[in-house]
Amino acid sequence: MSPVTHFLTGWMVANCVKPGRKERAIVTLACVAPDIDGFGIISELLTRNSTYPLLWFSMYHHALHTLVFAVVVTTIAFVLTKQWKISLLALLAFHIHLFEDVLGSRGPDGYQWPIPYLSPFSSKVGLTWSGQWELNAWPNVTITVILILITFWLAWRRGFSPIEMISPKSDAAFITVLRKRFPRS
């Protein structure tokens, strides 16, 4: 699934409890963290016509979709928050990301990126699902649209949105506009 879908999913998980702004950001980013390796696409695109292209995306995407990295992300969440509840939400968000990828991340060429969950301890287990739909298939689009609608509803209801991670002032302005457009009855 797309990074936007993972981001919105993480924000939904963060809103399962009533953490503060920092804790919501940590859980949200934990859901996006497995795709840090996706930044390899930049070097790949920049060097694709060179003599020695850097195939970092093609070779390493999903390399961080592992139990080991899940433990690293969970540990970082605990170190930053000192809260087991937030750390466990970060772990859950990370694994929901993996589940979303197993559901809908097939490439246009039909290739299923297996999730190397037990790497580096074992390369024999690669999580896949034979019914995996393509990245741009209607189920992914539908899930993303539903997540956007829920995000707007939660923002309207609770008084904060994912924008708070970038700018609390911009978030407050967004909430004001949202509530003016859709006043409470």
Describe, in short, the structure shown:
Helix content is 58%, strand content 0%.
The biggest sheet, with number of strands, parallel, antiparallel or mixed sense and barrel status, is:
none
User: What proportion of the residues form beta strands (DSSP E)?
Assistant: under 5%
pLDDT average, as an integer? Answer: 92
Number of strands: 0
What is the count of helical runs? 8
Tell me what you see in this structure:
It is built from eight helices and no strands. By secondary structure, it is an all-alpha fold. It has a domain at 3-131. It is globular, with a radius of gyration of 18 Å. 26% of the residues are buried. The mean pLDDT is 92.
Keywords:
single chain; 185 residues; mainly alpha; 58% helix; 0% strand
SSE blueprint:
Layout: H1 3-14, H2 21-32, H3 40-47, H4 56-60, H5 67-81, H6 84-104, H7 138-158, H8 168-181
Helix pairs in contact: 1-2, 1-6, 1-7, 2-5, 2-6, 5-6
